[in-house]
Structure formats: C-alpha cells, structure tokens
Amino acid sequence: MVKKSASLSAGLEIYYNKYYVSMMEKQKTILVVEDEKSLREAIVDILRLKKFLPLEAKNGIEGVELALATHPDLILLDIVMPEMDGMTALKKIRQDAWGEKVPVIILTNLSATSEQLVEDVVTHKPMHYLIKSDWKLHDVVKKIETILETQSTL
Amino acid sequence: MKLLNNNIFICLLVMTAGLIFALPATASPEAPTMGAPLFDVISQLKGLRVDTSNAGLTVKVAPGELLPISVKLANFGGGKRVDVLVTYLIVTSAGEEIYSTTETVAVETTASFVKTIQVPFGTAPGIYTARTSIVYQGQVVPATTQFPFTVERKIFGLFQSEFYLYGGIMLLVATFAGIISRLWIRRRRITRFMPVDYSDIPHDKRVFYELISDTVMGMRGQVGESALDIAKQINGLVIDEKTGRVLKLTEKPSKVIAELVSGYEKALGKKVSFSFRGS
After folding, report:
1. Chain A residue set in contact with B, beta carbons under 8 Å
2. What's the structural domain count of chain A?
C-alpha cells in the first residue's frame, strides 16, 4: 500500500499512509499459538468475529517464526505443545528487541505448581497466566481487548 | 348565690378521645367558631341557667368505627331531679344529617358517661360535625354543642393519610438503608480486594509479593476465608491473617508460589490463574 502510493503525489501518499495506518490500527493482529486444532480454530473464529486479524501457529517453532516475522499486537500462547513448548517459545520471543515488550497471554491447562515454571513465568512476564478450563473464550477476548485498549492509550 | 341555688344549672360537657369539651349553649345550631367559648347564656327566666363551652378539637374515625363522646351533665338546681333528653347527630359539612339517636338521662346533681355512636359504614371521607343537644322541662333556650371530626378510610389498620405518610417514611428509610448497605458492601469489597501496595519491597522481589498477594486475594474472592487459611500454611510465606497482605517470604519466592498454587489445587480442586500487575 505504501509502495503503491509512492508514485502518487505527496498529498495522496500522506492520505494512503494515513489510511494504511488507520486500517492497521483498527484491525489488531493476534497470534494464536495452540496445538489443539479445534480450540485454535474456535479462538480464531471468535477473534475474527471481534474484528481482529488472527494468525495461527500449531507449535512453538511456528509461533516464534510467525511472531518475529509479523510482529503481532498480542500473542495467545499455549504451553504444552509438540516440537517446541510455549515457555521456550516465549523465551525466544523475549530475546528479540520487539518481542521483549509484546503482550503475551498464556492459555494453558498446566497448573503453575512447578518451581521452574513459576520462575520462567515471572522472568518472562506474560500479562496473564490463564487456566483454559476456568476461562470462557469471550472472557479471554475481553482480556485481549483490555490489554490492547490500555496499550493504545499509552 | 341564693338565686343560683334556686336555679337549675346544667352543664353539659362533651369529651372526645379523652379530651373534655364543654358544650356551648347555642341559640341556633349553626357551626360555631372553634377555639374560644362560644356562648355564655344566663337566663333567669323560670330560674334556669345553662353554661357550655367548646374546646375546638378535631378527631378522626373510619367509617363503621365508634365515635366516643364523653358527656357530663350537672344540675345545680338543689337536688331536684330533671329528665334530660340528649340528642346526638352527625351532620355533613353541608348540614345534611347522616346519623341521629336520642336518650333520656335523669340528672339530680351530675351525670357523667361516655356515649359511643357508630359512624355509618357507607360514610364518605370528609369532615363531619358531631352535634349534641339537650332538652329538658322548663328549658327556655336550646343547649347545643358540636365539634368537627374527620372520617377517613383505613388501610391495614392505619388511616389513609397516615398510611401514605408512614409508608413514604418507611420507603425513604428503606431506600436510604439500602443505599448505605450497598455502599458499605461495595466499600468493603473494594478495600478487601484492593491490590496491596508493595512499593516498600525491593524491586527484584516485589513481583513475587504482588503475585502471591493477588493470587491469595483472587482465591479469597472465589472460596472465601479458607484461601487465607491455606496460604498461612505454606512454608516460607508469612501473611497478615486478616488482610492477606504478604509480610515476609522466607523461602525462595518461586517455590512459595508453586506450593501456594499446588495447595489451592489440592484443597479446593481449583487450578489457579494469575495476572501480573499492569496488565
């Protein structure tokens, strides 16, 4: 969009850039990293319904790649996944300059009863550590909306 | 005095609702002005004298209820028996008679009694006059007394006006009490679940204090005071027994959190979600 507008006059370029930015601002990107297909699709559906732009990854490796390539506005991350678990993925994302501050919500069935897990969670600071069985998808989406609203006002 | 002794002196007093009305002797039964004594007629014709007065109070009754009238007749005529015909009337403000009854009372010196007259059931609400008059042999001028009273319907044993008044007051009080209790509960809830400030804790440890504190409060909101009891039993965690404020961590913080989460899961069968402050 920006490239296309480069050939146009300066005024139009500004208009297109503003339009582009505005569109991007309106449709926030959410990366859903979840190995359970049915749940992932349900989350994606509800995010689309709420006018978000959802991106899907079915394991930690895909999640890290997609996150660093697309810089989503928020990451919804499962912990127990094949190939690369969510906590390892989070560590890798946090090592990136952009990924250091991206808001992450952990949505898992894994209880934080291990000392190492707690240590990791505290170190890499997701915004929320939510137990799947305790949360309805609508409430998770509300949390996403709240985080993004708070960030846009900062 | 001699003249008075020879005269028949009848004083008619009417008391309603426990208050004494001295009946006025009226030349005509027209409505009297309330308050001051109306008539003080002294007639020496045939040795007869009648004195009455009116206290001017209003009472309230419901249709079908009894209206008590306390009557006092006094004969100052030297012990000579006089038969007095007493007539009781209830008249509307337009002068229409809606109730009437009579009785004869023999008076030698004094006669005191309470007469109750029943206000007819179908009486419409409004202001009425209870009129009492006496007739006796040798009477020169008529003696009549009257007082106004109000007829008002009752709701649940209360007069309509009182019912609305007390009902309004009760409603106001209930609303006020409701607002106060709601505010109190809200304030209690806010103060109870308000995140505790740990700005006095060193930055590197603060996040653990906040996480533990918020987790205990969150569980307290879900399961009540047992959340505090469980937290108190965690090794290395010292909390305020009333507020749940984390006072000290004597073990590795991540170990304390893991044990706390595990404790809640075992005791309450609930997995614990938590959030970091600023989220």
Report:
1. 103, 109, 111-119, 122, 125-131, 133-135, 147
2. 1
